[in-house]
Amino acid sequence: MQEDDWDAVVLDEGFVRGAAEREPSARARMLAARWRREAPAPQPWRSDKPPAGWFFSRRKRRW
């Protein structure tokens, strides 16, 4: 039986984080491609509106 070169390699978290090359996540690549085609509309830093579902997300109290 012949030992393969890859049998001794352990693909753990330390191996992955120690990689010299870094690749962006799939979401980052998707957004970069979308923004190259069409830039996103500017968004205000703070909005007058609460987040969606904010008012109705709280549990109703019983009196």
Structure, explained:
This protein has a domain at 9-37. The protein contains two helices and no strands. The chain has 63 residues and is an all-alpha fold. It has helices at residues 13-17, 26-37.
Low-pLDDT stretches are none
**Cα-based radius of gyration, to the nearest Å:** 24 Å
Structural class: mainly alpha
Count every beta strand, where a strand is a DSSP E run of 2 or more residues: 0
DSSP helical segment count: 2
The biggest sheet, with number of strands, parallel, antiparallel or mixed sense and barrel status, is: none
Tell me the strand percentage band. Answer: under 5%
Overall geometry comes to elongated
Mean pLDDT: 79
Question: What percent of the residues sit in helical stretches (DSSP H or I)?
Answer: 25-40%
In sequence order, what are the helices and strands, one letter per element? Answer: HH
The oligomeric status of these chains comes to single chain
Distance between the termini: 76 Å
Task: Give a topology summary.
Elements: H1 13-17, H2 26-37
